[in-house]
């Protein structure tokens, strides 16, 4: 199966300081800490030997260990008061043997309500002058977490030696704050190092996606021709290599997007020369590829062999005058604009090192630390429960059972039930929960048994509120690719919630985010029932296998988990405990003996297009049947307020279908429409499709925001989408007026010749000045829609930024210009002082939009915004028409 590299965000600027790596380093490096596992305890003080704290008495030996028998417990008392929002706890060890050089600190930490974790190295020079070297391991909102691996690097400057090493914790005031620390280590980093993390592409936390590398290839329309992907078994060394493909006429914008960018390399010194070497081969020599170091240091390699060959380039990576804080490289195909490029280039084992010569390849020091984290360590008797990925064997049934929630059919008696007995919270589980999965002819049957104490009253709450009282969440990943899963939630009152979650790499690296986005429009029609008794309740859910047809991968296992929340007792229990949260698919268990075969071909339908009706009182939805599948009937319905379902009248003509939603546009926007499609007269639909209502205008009007006199007959484009097939007496009236004089300079009337049609209005021969365009759509004398647009007609400029009507993108100086950052000032003045950070990350534009801010446009601190933008050489675009919207079909490169 082809593995695609998805785009990962690089917006976390201190990412390496919170990288969660294990402290167990490979080899015999000297650990400068004494009693690093906290196993030696002073019998008098009950504190770990060699470790100190202040008079607050905030440390103690603990039996909750990551490895061995003991760990260090750090408590954070309410007094003395360090601040209105946080509590403080710390401990330290005298270390006097760290002199000039770079060191790696690593540890395991388990915390409750922790906000900040940081280290401080106290160093002295020969005159006794103190210097404090501070680094953050964790920063942000208060959080609780199980054992996590942390690592960072720090440097002792020339002429200084260490005195103390301190670890400090800040917790959220008003809550119980405690931390456990185990397996601390400091080792010295020696020798020349490869500063490029994951330079051999072997580390992949997400399948098919090498850690610390990003690509925008997934945004391109034709990934068969332009792509970057991780491939196996063709590597120069190890298992993986990178394949960059380009097949077509060369355009640097497309090539740039089909390439790949490394993550930041934090150890690159300003003004120093570095040599980047890499192994490459191609299937069509000679092939050219660009290597850019921080955009400005550029080298084009000619790959002239079908066998692996090493290439190198030397340059000053971080030039002093540019004042960049980070270093990274870009790799993308090279060529001459318009020429044919047809090649695949494989890349492996990238080495980036100080100096002007390339030494033998070796992974970075951090790669070794990461790979070593896979080693197993012996844990103490009181350590946390390890996740072993349990298995559940699915049963089979030939005849579909009755859905009544009682679980009294014969196949339930034969089915194997799994117990959910692992506590997700600290409270022990007192109420038994079990579940089973049975595969029928065309559906999964989920059976759930939930016990509780007899005689309790049920919480009912609001209508359709599933997250109340006693509820169970069932998670199912149908292809074990860790990129999507389905969520089913049911409670004792018989309320049901469904959602589909899709992995979004852009949100994955945001602190505290799971990386998954919930699609609430996924609302299938399911048969389910709940049966309650005095000492518990049971549930049955029938899930059609057809829902997973597009997701299924041959021989890929199903993964699943179940999670119960009982608010009556404060308990929460699960089948397999995730390391982070219940959106962590790699921690799910396995469903065995699943065998799904579809006897009939899939039914494919086009996306539903929604437009206002002609009388503006409703919305019309249109779609087509894409293949030749036999279809007996189709029904449509919409979910309105509180989950109420309204059936819609649907008309079908051949493969074309349309339906009317009899509600105003404002009431149906973002609501979910469900299609049910039958092949025969069976009671249950064969196919269910879902779509959120997104309205497309009947009339759209666009032109360049800036037009030059030298552009011959440059058009304004008017696109019409009629809500009906009748074209008689339908027209578009276009009026152009001069903004200063208000005089009409152009009047045009177009007869509508197609339900969807685009018309061009040339205006390049008008006098220079500002112009207002107005278009009106008429049907049988009635006005259906009106739109306005503005532009400026002037002399050609050397430097300019404008929107281009042909591709609806922004261009700079006549070339496509990609907006890398829209200014997110939800609070008006947010991030105004952080322009330099965005600039270091490659951003170069600030966009402000009166239409999308949460505060009034006039209350923004515009003076400060322009001051910071000018200081950091930023472009500013004022977006009055949502010009930053990047529609998948409107941009010719689909960025």
Which runs of at least 5 residues are low in confidence (pLDDT < 50)?
Answer: 1-28, 371-387, 505-515, 818-830, 851-855, 881-895
User: Which structural class is indicated by helix and strand composition?
Assistant: mainly beta
As an assembly, this protein is: single chain
The first-to-last residue Cα distance is: 25 Å
* Envelope shape: globular
Q: Helix count, per DSSP?
A: 7
Helix content bin: under 10%
Radius of gyration: 32 Å
Mean pLDDT reading: 77
- Major beta sheet summary: 9 strands, mixed
Beta-strand portion reads 35-45%
Q: How many E strands?
A: 53
How would you concisely characterize the structure shown here?
The protein is mostly beta strands and 895 residues long. It has seven helices and 53 strands.
Q: Can you tell me about this structure?
A:
This protein is mostly beta strands and 895 residues long. It is 5% helix and 42% strand. The strands form ten sheets. Strands 19, 22, 25, 26, 27, 28, 31, 32 and 33 form a nine-stranded mixed sheet that branches. Strand 49 (801-804) and strand 50 form a beta hairpin.
Please give a handful of descriptors for the protein shown.
9-stranded mixed sheet; 7 helices; 895 residues; mainly beta; 8-stranded antiparallel sheet; 53 strands; single chain; 5% helix; globular
């Amino acid at each position: 199966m082809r593995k695609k590299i998805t785009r990962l965000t690089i917006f976390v600027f201190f990412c390496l300081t919170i990288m969660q790596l294990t402290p167990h380093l490979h080899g015999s490096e000297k650990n400068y800490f004494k009693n690093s596992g906290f196993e030696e305890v002073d019998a008098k003080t009950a504190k770990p030997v060699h470790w100190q704290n202040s008079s607050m008495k905030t440390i103690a030996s603990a039996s909750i260990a990551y490895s061995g028998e003991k760990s260090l417990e750090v408590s954070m008392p309410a007094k003395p008061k360090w601040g209105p929002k946080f509590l403080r706890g710390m401990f330290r060890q005298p270390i006097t043997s760290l002199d000039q050089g770079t060191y790696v600190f690593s540890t395991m930490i388990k915390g409750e309500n922790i906000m900040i974790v940081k280290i401080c190295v106290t160093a002295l020079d020969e005159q006794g002058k103190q210097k404090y070297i501070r680094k953050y391991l964790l920063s942000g909102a208060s959080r609780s977490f199980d054992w996590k691996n942390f690592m960072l690097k720090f440097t002792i400057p020339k002429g200084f030696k260490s005195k103390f090493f301190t670890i400090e914790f800040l917790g959220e005031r008003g809550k119980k704050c405690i931390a456990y620390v185990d397996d601390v280590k400091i080792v010295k980093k020696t020798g020349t190092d490869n500063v490029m993390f994951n330079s051999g592409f072997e580390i992949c936390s997400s399948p098919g996606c090498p850690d610390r590398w990003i690509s925008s290839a997934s945004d391109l329309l034709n990934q068969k021709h332009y792509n970057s992907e991780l491939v196996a078994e063709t590597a120069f060394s190890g298992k993986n290599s990178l394949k960059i493909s380009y097949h077509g006429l060369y355009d640097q914008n497309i090539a740039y997007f089909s390439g790949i960018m490394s993550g930041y390399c934090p150890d690159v010194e300003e003004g120093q020369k570095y040599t980047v070497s890499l192994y490459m081969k191609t299937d069509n020599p000679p092939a050219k590829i660009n290597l850019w170091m921080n955009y400005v240091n550029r080298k084009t390699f000619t790959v002239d062999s079908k066998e692996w060959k090493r290439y190198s380039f030397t340059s000053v990576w971080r030039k002093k005058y540019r004042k960049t804080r980070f270093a990274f490289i870009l790799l993308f195909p090279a060529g001459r604009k318009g020429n044919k490029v047809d090649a695949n280039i494989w890349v492996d084992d990238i080495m980036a090192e100080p100096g002007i010569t390339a030494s033998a390849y070796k992974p970075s020091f951090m790669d070794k630390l990461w790979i070593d984290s896979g080693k197993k360590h012996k844990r103490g008797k009181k350590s946390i429960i390890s996740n072993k990925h349990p298995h559940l064997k699915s049963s089979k049934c030939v005849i579909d059972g009755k859905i009544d929630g009682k679980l009294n059919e014969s196949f339930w008696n034969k089915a194997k039930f799994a117990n959910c007995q692992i506590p997700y919270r600290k409270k022990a589980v007192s109420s038994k929960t079990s579940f089973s999965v049975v595969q029928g002819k065309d559906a999964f049957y989920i059976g759930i048994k939930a016990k509780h104490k007899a005689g309790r009253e049920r919480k009912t709450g609001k209508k359709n509120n599933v997250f109340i009282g006693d509820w169970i969440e069932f998670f199912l990943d149908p292809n074990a690719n860790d990129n999507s899963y389905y969520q089913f939630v049911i409670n004792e009152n018989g309320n049901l919630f469904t959602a589909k979650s899709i992995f979004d790499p852009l949100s994955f690296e945001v602190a505290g985010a799971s990386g998954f986005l919930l699609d609430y429009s996924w609302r299938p029609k399911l048969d389910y029932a709940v049966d309650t008794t005095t000492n518990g309740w049971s549930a049955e859910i029938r899930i059609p296998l057809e829902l997973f047809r597009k997701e299924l991968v041959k021989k890929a296992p199903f993964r699943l988990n179940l999670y119960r929340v009982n608010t009556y007792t404060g308990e929460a229990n699960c089948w397999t405990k995730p390391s982070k949260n219940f959106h962590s698919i790699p921690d799910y268990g396995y469903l065995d003996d699943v065998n799904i075969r579809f006897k009939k071909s899939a039914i494919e339908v086009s996306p539903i297009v929604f437009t206002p009706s002609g009388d503006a009182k409703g919305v019309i939805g249109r779609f087509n049947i894409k293949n030749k599948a036999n279809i007996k009937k189709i029904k449509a319905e919409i979910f309105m307020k509180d989950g109420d379902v309204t059936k819609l009248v649907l008309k079908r003509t051949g493969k074309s279908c349309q339906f009317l939603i009899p509600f105003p546009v404002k009431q149906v926007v973002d609501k979910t429409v469900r299609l049910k499609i039958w092949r025969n007269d069976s009671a249950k639909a064969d196919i269910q499709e879902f779509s959120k209502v997104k309205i497309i205008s009947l009339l759209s009007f666009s032109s360049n925001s800036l037009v030059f006199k030298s552009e011959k007959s440059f058009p304004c484009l008017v696109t019409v989408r009629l809500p009906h097939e009748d074209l008689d007496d339908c027209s578009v009236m276009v009026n152009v007026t001069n903004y200063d004089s208000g005089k009409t300079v152009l009047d045009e009337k177009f007869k509508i010749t197609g339900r969807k049609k685009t018309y061009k209005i040339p205006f390049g021969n008008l006098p220079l000045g500002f112009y207002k365009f107005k278009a009106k759509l008429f049907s049988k004398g009635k006005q259906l829609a009106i739109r306005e647009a503005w532009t400026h007609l002037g002399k050609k400029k050397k430097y300019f930024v404008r929107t281009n009507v042909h591709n609806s993108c922004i261009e700079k100086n006549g070339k496509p210009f990609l907006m890398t950052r829209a200014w997110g000032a939800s609070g008006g003045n947010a991030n105004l002082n952080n322009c330099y950070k965005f600039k270091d990350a490659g951003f170069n534009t600030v966009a402000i939009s009166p239409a999308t801010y949460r505060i009034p446009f006039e209350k923004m601190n515009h003076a400060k915004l322009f001051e910071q933008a000018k200081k950091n050489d930023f472009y500013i675009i004022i977006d009055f028409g949502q010009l930053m919207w990047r529609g998948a079909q409107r941009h010719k490169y689909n960025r």
